[in-house]
Amino acid sequence: MSEKKLMSLDDMFGDSINTTEQENQTKVEITRLIPFENHPFKLYEGDRFENMVRSIKEFGVIVPVIVRPKGYDYEILSGHNRVNAAKAAGLLEVPVVIKENLEDEEAMLIVTETNLMQRSFSDMLHSERAAALSEHHKALSSQGKRTDLLKEIESLLKADEINDVETSRQLGEKLTSVDETGKTYNLSGRSVSRYLRICNLIKELKDRVDTEEIPFTASVTISYLAEGEQQIVEEILSEHNFKIDMKKAETLRAFSEGKKLNEETAYSILSGELNKKPKANKPEPIKLKPKLISKFFAPEIKQTEIEEVIEKALELYFETQKKEVLDE
Prior knowledge:
Helices cover 54% and strands 8% of the residues. It starts with 8 loop residues before the first helix and ends with a helix. It has a five-stranded mixed beta sheet with strand order 1-5-3-4-2. The chain is built from 16 helices and five strands. A hairpin with a 2-residue loop joins strand 3 and strand 4 (73-78). It is an alpha/beta fold. It has helices at 9-13, 46-59, 80-88, 104-118, 126-143, 147-156, 159-168, 177-182, 189-198, 203-210, 216-222, 227-239, 246-257, 263-271, 290-296, 303-327, and strands at residues 25-29, 33-34, 65-70, 73-78, 93-98. It is elongated. The chain folds into three domains: 9-108, Conserved hypothetical protein from pyrococcus furiosus pfu- 392566-001, ParB domain (Alpha-Beta Complex), CATH 3.90.1530; 115-198, no CATH class; 204-271, no CATH class.
């Protein structure tokens, strides 16, 4: 029996990914629409969501939601924000295009492709960009399409090659095949490789990248830590107000590669104690109160003269103390 061939985007959407009036549209009750499992994109909030609600109240849902059957209900593939806004606007049903007999890979391809086409990368959080590129790649891989592009991305997934690209290439060099890969997403090849690495972070650390608690470049380095090591880092960050910079990220990775990263070493790195120079064994500086200075010195006396007098007085004091100890 021949292996089932997955549908291409053209097969799924017709001649264009944008749905048209000629497509088989129908209306479905909102209560029968369920979110896509493991939906990688964060939903609209605040003003952006309220603007969509106002628009739907005035014009309705113009672009139909793309769904697939899920038992009695329908799973949303494209249009999660429209459905939420329609609920808030008081609608009971929305227009949908139902896609039958989709493989999971095909469904994910619709989820990522429509988000990539409807939203610019500048509108997405780092974790969303990473998820879009990664899932898009997986879906296309399963279809055996665009093998030239997939070979390029596949090479980017190799940790050693990514490391070499990021550490050796300088600005102004001739574009390589890695850079050509990123053209599909309007990104540099280096950016594509970094976003693919972000997918290796645990969710909690991805959230910290999205909120800029962890710098993007540092998060790429942290992505090389094992999942258990990332959990240790997250627990320490949750309990303490430590910041991660590139130097700390590189140290964490170095300790991980040396099999020396544990709770104790991770804490010393994140707290900054590891590379902190020991304090010199010197007495703390003191300041004499103005009232004490004015008691023994006239206002016109220079500071250098005051210091000389104090030094002589201290020498005399300690000599006297030493003599008293010897006489006992």
